[in-house]
Amino acid sequence: MWIILGLLFSLSASALSSFEELKNVKILKVLPKNVVLVDRGLEDGLLRNDHVKFSHEAEGYSSRAICLVSKATTSYWKLYRIPKSEVFSKDLTYKISGLADREIPFQNAKLRDEEFSFPEEKVRTDPGPNPFEVKRDLPQKLTERDLLDAAGPREEKLFIERAIMRDQLRQDLSDYRFSVYASPFTKQSINDSESLRYGFRGGNFGSKYRLITQFEQQQSKLRDPQNDKTVSTRTTNGNIQFSVYRLKPWLSSLSVINYNSTRFSSLGTPRAHWQYGVLGFTWHILESKTWEYVDLSYIPLYDTRTTDIITPTGERKTDKTSGLRHGFRLGFRTRFNEKVSVENLLWARPYQDLATWKVDGGNLNMVNDFKLIFNVMNNLFFDYNLIFQKDKLWRTLSGLPENNTINALNMRYDFDL
Question: For the domain 2-113, what is the CATH code?
């Protein structure tokens, strides 16, 4: 009878999703090579190859781990990132939060294809209620009504929301990773320029809040369309994205700030270009071991652009435009093996005039960014980057081609902050 019930438990167990949590988890044993045995298993929905983050209520984020073996009431975990080793103790309890498969580093992904076995552990059973426990004249369980009556509905709700958001945000941002990269060779079709590109990216993989930052500069030598001479130019790009992840299993929020400026010869084309998106949404279409993600996003963007222009009489003027852009983003990432993956991000942002509310389908401000990624060793990466850009205002304001293709080879190194 017990065997049948155990089998039913194991068949009905489901893996810990990236938005689920388990609290009051204890470490029962520490094994060599950063493997730990915890007191949760199949009955709690933990399966082999689950990917989680361990955190402590007071100390915050402590490690990330992959499940090697899951049994009825226990499971073995390989800890592969331990920024706070001093937090680990058998005397503490932890919260484990599910993480997406796509967040596993390439060098650790091979653990999911290996078979592990561990001897049966003798785990102490719960002795039951303590006969010496002092009975207190407090309710067995506090309900939401008890809290509201004590503090008032508005004050209690605001206090709880602030405490949860502050603690979760601190924990999520504690796992922040930076990438620095340089492109010793970059060639783009517009004006046959050759460039040196460099910059950094930063991002975290929090279970609730995610922040991505990017800054990039590009030094170029190109043919000036005004006088057919070779000149130097510089392009600057910046980007900030903030998401509240998994509002629903299939939905996240999105907030964006974009900036770019480019100087062709003495002209700024544009001198400054800002896009502000306060609130948008991302639909998670697909997520699996092969397809790390397939996402579709929409966000309205307030667009303001300042551009230097030369009139037919040779006079220099500044053109300022502002309006609304509808930002559509389609992104995916898939991996062929633990060393090679492909990532693509397509932005299409049609322009809408705020005065007439007319949408200009030809003014798309479109960018498609394709990356072929090779993991050379540990945190060192080699990327081939192909970027296609389409901007109608290059042609109408500055007499440049509205299409541009950039080929770049990047060397990238990732590190934790």
Answer: 2.40.10.340
